[in-house]
Design a protein that fits this description.
The structure is a single chain. The two termini are about 25 Å apart. The protein has an eight-stranded antiparallel barrel. The longest helix has 10 residues. It is mainly beta. It has one domain: Lipid/polyisoprenoid-binding, YceI-like (Lipocalin). About 10% of the residues lie in helices and about 55% in strands.
């Protein structure tokens, strides 16, 4: 059998997975948010800088996900709105330049991660959240031949739970968070 095919099968087969660690690729990891604006549209934004480390242990308790987002890199695509979002009424990045998620438990199905319970820290307030992990897959990166895994991660929070109350109810309280994530296996 072709060596490349064997390598791909070993990387992608849940039966072969043991504890593995990944460093998130900041060029292919995109934390983003959506919020209702005046009840008539959806405001979308993203953060341009993030970092993280993931350890997955489908057979035991050693799984850990830690993601740090540089809140100062928030970007709505509009300079005036960015100033408002990064200012004291919303992300208050002068005082709280980082958003962080640290898992407390990761659930698996058929050897793949499907959810992570943990703590989200935003504006200096830490609250429990559950991340839904969708479309987890692994392959070999085509240029470097390094093992690469990725997923589509989602949750919803109430921003008021973190003390971000400005504009409620005209600007929605519920925020959809999504992180498109890729990481290289260490």
């Amino acid at each position: 059998m072709n060596k490349l095919l064997v390598s791909l099968l070993c990387i992608a087969s849940p039966a072969t997975w043991a504890t593995e660690s990944f460093s998130l690729d900041p060029d292919h990891t995109f934390p983003s948010f959506e919020i209702r604006h005046h009840g008539v549209s959806v405001l979308r934004g993203k953060f341009n800088r993030s970092q993280g480390r993931v350890t997955l242990d489908p057979a035991g308790p050693d799984s850990r996900i830690e993601v740090k987002v540089d809140a100062t890199s928030g970007d709505s695509g509009h300079d005036g709105l960015n100033r408002k979002l990064l200012g004291g009424s919303f992300f208050n990045t002068a005082q709280f330049p980082e958003i962080q998620f640290v898992s407390t438990e990761v659930a698996f199905k058929d050897g793949k991660p499907v959810s992570a319970n943990g703590n989200l820290t935003l504006l200096g307030v830490t609250r429990p959240v559950t991340l839904e992990i969708r479309d987890y897959a692994c392959t070999l990166q085509f240029l470097t031949r390094r093992p690469l895994c990725g997923a589509d991660v989602h949750t919803r929070i109430k921003r008021s739970d973190f003390g971000m109350n400005y504009g409620i109810p005209l600007i929605g309280d519920e925020v959809k968070l999504a992180i498109e994530v890729e990481g290289f296996r260490e």
